[in-house]
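dumping these here so i dont lose them again. two proteins, back to back, each one seq then structure tokens. dont judge the mess
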Amino acid sequence: MDESIRPEAAQAVDLLDRHDRACEDKGYRRVLKKQNEKWRYVNTESKVLSLREMVSRELGLNVSVSHPRLWYLRITDSSAPMKNFGTPPVPRPDSQGRLPDDEDAARLKQLMYELDILSRPT
């Protein structure tokens, strides 16, 4: 280990080395593959890539560090739209103050007119 890096960076380098050695194990690769099949915000691969960027920055390389979520989105490259979880595709006709038809609109205008007449001081 280089003595010029901070202890946190040395731990990160050690962690990356252990991850690289563990990737040689078939069982570990199987676990990583199984993890990638699940829908998550981040996974181990995205965390490792982000950690590599942090270590590179600590070593003096001019790199920008991306959040693991950004790496996950780059890796998966899911350009399909996300699943809609319960949001209705079209608002109901009576939602957000919309009137269903012209008859109701005329009735509402009449009520507003009558309220306006009643609220005037005499």
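---- next one ----
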Amino acid sequence: MPSTAPATKDFPVKQLIILALCRICEPISFTSIFPYIYQMIESFGIAKNQNEIGIYAGMVTSAFAIAEFSTGMLWGRISDRIGRKPVLIIGLVGTLISMLIFGFAKSLSVALIARALGGGLNGNIGVIQTTVAELVREKEHQPRAFAIMPFIWCLGSIIGPALGGLLAEPTRFYPGIFPPGGLLEEYPFLLPNMVSSVVLVFGIANGILFLEETHEVLRQKRDYGREIGEKLVNFFSWKKPEPKRGDNGYTALETEPLLSRHNADYSTNNGQETPDIAPQKKIPSIWRAFTRPVIGLVISYGILAYHTMGFEQLMPVFLSTPVSDEKPHDLLRFTGGLGMTTQSIGFILSMQGVFSMCMQFFVFPPVARHFGVLGLYRFCMFTYATSYIIVPYLDWLPEGNIQKIGVYVVLAIKITYGVLAYPCNAILLTNSAPSLLVLGAINGIASSCASLARAISPTVTGMIYSFGLDINCVGLAWWVNAGVCIIGAVQAISMKQEDFDREPEDLDIMSVIDEEAAAGTAIDGRVPIINVDVPGIGTTGETFDEYGLVRSVVEGEITALSESVPPNGTMASLAKVASRIAENNN
């Protein structure tokens, strides 16, 4: 069953919901370890003091990001060759394996391997952005569509910590339900990982059965998973499936790929078998995909990831740092934090997630439509630093409710900028790609760059914060973070609107034709299957691939098709293909 995802200009609600159900599994799994990571490291018995526990916990957290950085570009490129859907499923399976190993970990080395395995097998950040871009081709729908996945991440990041906090060490906290002496006492952190694994199994099944392939070419391939999913839906809804028809009234046979590789055999006129035909267009060189706008946005994405991750690392530490006996006496000297309790910090951070969800879904789409994506992105880059500069001055506020209100205001400012900036970057990156066929590789490299920034940022900001405490300048780390943000703002000046006005190409033929095709030779060893009479070109070098797309430069209208029809094709479908190609080249 070929996908029809990009064929409609309507907002693809159904497919985005299915994609969201796959996506939410990962933040639940990723964030579920945070409530018990301290206790887990402590149970390994390797830390000599509490300070070392924090270091080891940081290593476990960073292992995922470092591994994700090392493979992000690879998974993006693979998704350009085998499709988005298989890579998404592989990522979910990798996360599932990682969670189970992590639950059984009884040493730091096993925990590190588990997290690194999860990051290395997971390239879904970039691939999901690519999938959304291919599902939603209309620019007026992009702000709404690109706000959905961050919203889902926020939702999962609220569920995950609650899951981990409630289910860790069950024999200790729920002895009536989980009696001591069993598997869960030997592996006290297994239960939250098992529950996360069940959630992941649901996500994998949902993806296999219902998610459409969105790749520009591979969406035409038959999808056995979706066929099974449709049969299940028809069975449980008690509906008799109806044969699919195209717009012209012909049956589904006529709208299937012309030379499907799933057919058993192909034969020539003399009865000899012909070799299988490769299913993909020739993908453009990865280096040609990285134009000046693309490179600029990838760098901007890395800078954005660095300073936002720095905030996430610094804020809980600053809130928990004991209050100094000495009140600030000038604008640059701050000797302590806010001294809040763990319960207060947890509540504040959970409210941050709720606020982020609301902003992501209800504020970003109308604001982006009103001000324009590039204009909004520039505004965020130029003013983002204010949310970092003002944090140390919270120490000036009276302790108690007024100080907490100040914290909420700072978090609201930071969340607003993040909610606006990240989807803007994703939309601009999509619209700057020279071809949709390399969008997976571009998003893969962008996510790798962001993963590297997120892996480096906690260590660097933590060291600067510690140094700032030593010299009685707690604000140092915050102001350095603001400086990085300002570098990103300066870099955003070079962005020009005309770099992002490219309309998505339906067939995207011309971007994948190389010099050999222009000379009329076969591509990747393919031989001519259907001869096309084109003025000025002739018929000898023309090749159709299995999707009915012309494989050489076509100048002028197609005037005739040969009567040699592939086994699973019809003259009606060939005429439709000819009409589309001629229309594309006029």
